[in-house]
Specification:
Blueprint (H helix, E strand, L loop, with lengths): L5 H9 L4 E5 L3 H9 L4 E4 L3 H4 L11 H14 L4 E5 L9 H13 L5 E3 L6 H9 L4 E6 L5 H4 L9 H17 L3 E5 L3 H10 L4 E4 L7 E4 L1 H4 L16 H18 L11
Parallel strand pairs: 1-2, 1-8, 2-3, 3-4, 4-5, 5-6, 6-7, 7-8
Helix pairs in contact: 2-4, 5-6, 6-8, 8-9
The chain binds 3-methyl-2-oxobutanoic acid.
Length: about 260
Amino acid sequence: MGKTTVSAFARRREAGEKIVVITAGSAAESAAAVAAGIDIILVGDSLGNTMLGFDTTIPVTMEMMLHHTAAVRRGAPEAFVIFDMPFMSYHTGIDEAVRNAGRALQEAGADAVKLEGGADPELIRRLVASGIPVLGHLGLLPQSIQTVGSYRVVGRDEAEANRVIAEARMIEDAGAFAVVLECVPGELGRRITEKLRIPTIGIGSGAACSGQVQVLYDTLGITARTPKHAKRFAEVGEAMRKALAAYAEEVRSGAFPAPENTFK
Ligand code: KIV
């Protein structure tokens, strides 16, 4: 079977098959995602929060994203990998944005890029015309936290819902292959999914979306606080703490390393 291309996701939507997306930031994570049968790996800038210890995604740079995306690609050579364009990498002019998106494909091996917000259809057109597939991202936009002020559900009132619908149509018309809907009410997620031809990928936007994306650390139970839209499918954080406590205990007691861990 050849490598997945964006048209596969449109066919999945047509066939009513859900698209499964997870974030990853390392080779071990992407290898596990592929082994688990995940459809798309998103190298989300949320790795700034989960892996790098920042409070927001604002400090995440192109260089950090390239570094993590290249690792994800090495762990999963055949996967469909999306590079999340970080804050200020696509805001200072179309030429600069196209150059940065090109680096994601050329230097890190990504297959597509994701952009937050619905403001600039021309940018999406230029990227697609340059051969760079684009995933849109609407609703809650973590890169706008400084102007918006809080992480909240978007589109609860009709005016705001209509704005998100208009932006989704614009993103589709500009040539994006799919759109992430983050934290919009489930009913709005359903309306947008019905109105668009391209797939919608929900996170906190209800079950009617064409697919779902989740942050790996939430899904594995590594993050301390679980957002309402996430589910802890395991308690990996607790398993890590227990394993490390056992390691420390055995080093201190002399039980580790044992003869079988020692070279003759
Ligand atoms: O950065 C990220 O992980 C994302 C997803 C939440 C969609 O943008």
